[in-house]
Amino acid sequence: MEGKSSYGGNMEYLKATELKLGPPGTDIRQEATSGVSTRPKKRAMTGPTEQHTKSKVQVVGWPPVRPQRMNSFRARRNETVDESGGVYVKVSMDGAPYLRNIDLKILHGYKELRTILEGMFKCSSLGGAEGYDEEGYAITYEDKDGDLMLVGDVPWEMFVSSCKRLRIMKGSEARGLS
Amino acid sequence: MKVQSAMFYFPEEVIEHIFSFLTHHPDRNTVSTVCKAWYKIERLSRREVFVGNCYAIRPDRAAARFPGLRSLTLKGKPHFADFDLVPPDWGGLAGPWIEAMARSCPNLEELRMKRMVVSDESLELLAHAFPNFKALVLVSCEGFSTDGLAAVARSCKSLRELDLQENEIEDRGPRWLNSFPDMCTSLVSLNFACLKGEVNLKSLERLVCRSPNLKCLRLNRAVPVETLAKIMNQCPNLEDLGTGSLLADQFSEAYVSLISALQKCKKLRCLSGFWDASPLCLLAVYPICANLTGLNLSYAPTVQGQDFINLIQHCVKLLRLWVLDSVGDKGLAVVASACKELQELRVFPSDLFAAGPATVTEEGLVAISTGCPKLNSLLYFCHSMTNSALITVSKNCPNFTRFRLCILEPRKPDPATNEPLDEGFGAVVKTCKNLRRFSISGLLTDQVFYYIGKYAKALEMLSIAFAGDTDQGMTYVLNGCKNLRKLEIRDCPFGDGALLADVTKYETMRSLWMSSCDISLRGCKALATKMPSLNVEIINEWEAEMEENLNNGVAEVISNNNNKHINNGNDERKVEKLYVYRTVGGPRTDAPDFVWTL
Questions:
Q1: Which residues in chain A are closer than 8 Å to B82, comparing Cβ atoms?
Q2: pLDDT tens, B489-500?
Q3: Looking at the keywords, is Cell division present (chain A) (predicted)?
Q4: Cα(B269)–Cα(B238) distance, rounded to whole angstroms?
């Protein structure tokens, strides 16, 4: 059969010989835009160049699965990519002059997280079992979707893979979260 | 003559009564065309309307024709919008429809919408305009937030059904669950599985307590096992359950509580959810498996291997099964031996990037077809397929009405013979006389389209990607498939010759989508000129990409007036995306800049 190679055929070979920065099998543009949402209501818009990327699975709209399912693939893929290095997230505290950085990978659970943060910011109370109390602070984090979440609700592993940055809020402000 | 006068005097009430037995939409459409009298009787007594393309008719006209409307179903964006092929802000706005209904059809009770853009304001209007409103079903929609849901919950006093399937919903907090009336609610079905955010668990428990008629409840991932157990204890009559997160320590009180709660649910027929399901949580489900007719494990990658086998072997009455390909051919073999009543199977991809040892192949599909002869609906993602497997499958299961096979690598041939899959898919259309929906993939030549045109006489919807050699392929389909309603094509070498082969055909269809094919502006213009009853729309993403680049600061591009581009002389330019549909509503008035109506 005479195969008529078209759309993406030649470009696939071209892209395969390109020198790129990054681990093999990843597309830099894809990685760069995956976690960013400039307009929350807009779905990730890939331009025409994406149609000619090396890996076949990165053709726009292929395979034909709905966004919710696609997102669960991306989440799992990002998890495996991060396993090699640490998971460093910035930690800010309301009123503090500068931020800190903390590697979630070396911690084993929420209790240890609280202890470390207390040590870093030298606060006497960083919330009890409920995650916050009236006079103290609450630990919150920004997740993959950009939402502000109260720390402690989800299993630890899930938290580590979805946490993008931490924020220690004043107790009165944090009450609205629960 | 006596007989003639008897025929002229035929009371309207009698005709209306006869019409009330006609529930099939095409039948009602047919009787309305018989004569003026019947048109009038039919339109005043019509209670349900299905609009497959929201741009096929103006909302005002539909609302004015059917003032007694109780149930409206609307579909908006083209199907390929589900796969990001349609730019955001394309259209499919629900607003004009809800406004028109609010003006003319106050008795509206049910609204079902798919792939439409719904705003919070529209939901607010909906909540106030229809005093008898009972059911809202939104599938693959977007544009609204939990505030809109709150409005519906608060103001629709007789709400029975709130069904949210795979929508993009902006999360503005968990307070919307509190908005349901304080007194007993009339809720029968509540599905918020697609909500990504947190849920106020106490509110949820209280809501369930005051909803005695609840039969279907689908929770989102944020609901933990503890809450699920409490809810199950409140609703032993539940028939359809979507769990929240099933992560639990086997020795926890919550887990024990869940087991005892589930055992009391004798009427449970349908299960879904299973997020983060630990194998131990699955043990809790075993006692009810024997009565299940529907099971959706497609968001549960943790349920695989022996865990899956242990679960599925009990599900002997299963009719519908949705799983991930991580269950493997082994898992499917167990399905084939246990689920003899199976009618619908969907196997979704679990990992796009690697064909692991545990994913499914043609063997799994053949096993299913051998063990489950009642199978009539299939969606199967796999890494490869052979002609001989497809031929065997079609021999075993001649009753397919829906057959969708997606081989993950485009243009992949039969690995055993290195040939195209024309014969395999051809066998399916030859043996399955009732095939209504067909999606094909892998390496395919014009030959497969010859078979489709020749044999697929009942076919209504065809999806093609990366297939065919020449215009002849598409022409076979247009000429042969008498009942074709929707044709969607991407990345195929079909050009103007195919597009214009049978232009009157498109008037008998709902819509045609072609993207990344070989059609030119000249061809599209020709189509538009020959067929004024069609909207011939071109999506020009150059504009959309420019906007994106400007926002990212990637490039500085000067934006020209779009209209100049249509007629600047270069008609040989290839058209990236074409959407053609029949309409009585004329060109769209709400088309964004990047949609050009020719």
A1: 64, 66-67
A2: 999 999 999 999
A3: no
A4: 9
